[in-house]
Amino acid sequence: MARIIGLLVFVILVTGCSSPRETATPTTSVLLAIPATETVTPTTAPSATPQNTPTTAGSAELPLEVCSPLAGYALPELAGIVVNPYHPPRLGSDDPHQGVDLAEVDPVNGIALIGMPVQALLAGKVVGQAADRFPYGNMVMIETPLDGAIAASNLALIVPTPLPERLPPGALTCPDLNVSPPAAGAPRSLYVLYGHMQNLPTVSLGDPVSCGQELGTIGDSGNALNPHLHVEVRVGPPG
Description:
The chain has one helix spanning 148-152; strands spanning 28-29, 31-33, 82-84, 100-102, 117-119, 124-133, 137-145, 156-158, 189-197, 208-209, 214-217, 229-236. The protein is mostly beta strands. The protein has a single domain (1-167, 186-239), classed as Glucose Permease (Domain IIA). β6 and β7 (137-145) form a beta hairpin. The longest helix is centred in the middle third of the chain and has 5 residues, at 148-152. The radius of gyration is 16 Å and the shape is globular.
């Protein structure tokens, strides 16, 4: 969704997405890592311990909670289940990999398993969904304001600077948008996409989502050869 979570997290499958590569939106990817006091690889998630009580999205006063995107795995364990790391493309291109793939692999036969619960990394609001649509299959996208709550969380965010002008037409397959570049200092949001889920997400457009809330289960819908969770994180204008 980074080698990384720009997840925030992320995040981390011996069996990645199939060719052709997944098509990404034209916004810029964001790097997310754990606090600088930890020693990790770029694909490692922030070292934060999910709380038992879910939090709701963004307050400038309180740190924003970060939760594991997969039930049963703590954030520091995610690096061990990455089957296709974040491999950022050049500007204007989709390839090679705009996010991180995570999968639970059977230790005996080496087969990636289906059905593990997928959870929200951050509190926010559902702003996008797709039903078995190429390339992400069954997916959901959640927006979280990039505000003081993020800064207070002590996450080592590497947020890209907006380009002064739009890129010329390139390899991206997204439709052209008549949108002006954001002004310097304009508010922005983080958008986290969860792809290839087994079924339609359990949340709907406009729903508030808490950190750690279940969104669905790992599957192989869309452009996926094996069951895995594709996590992709981007930054863009709010709304």
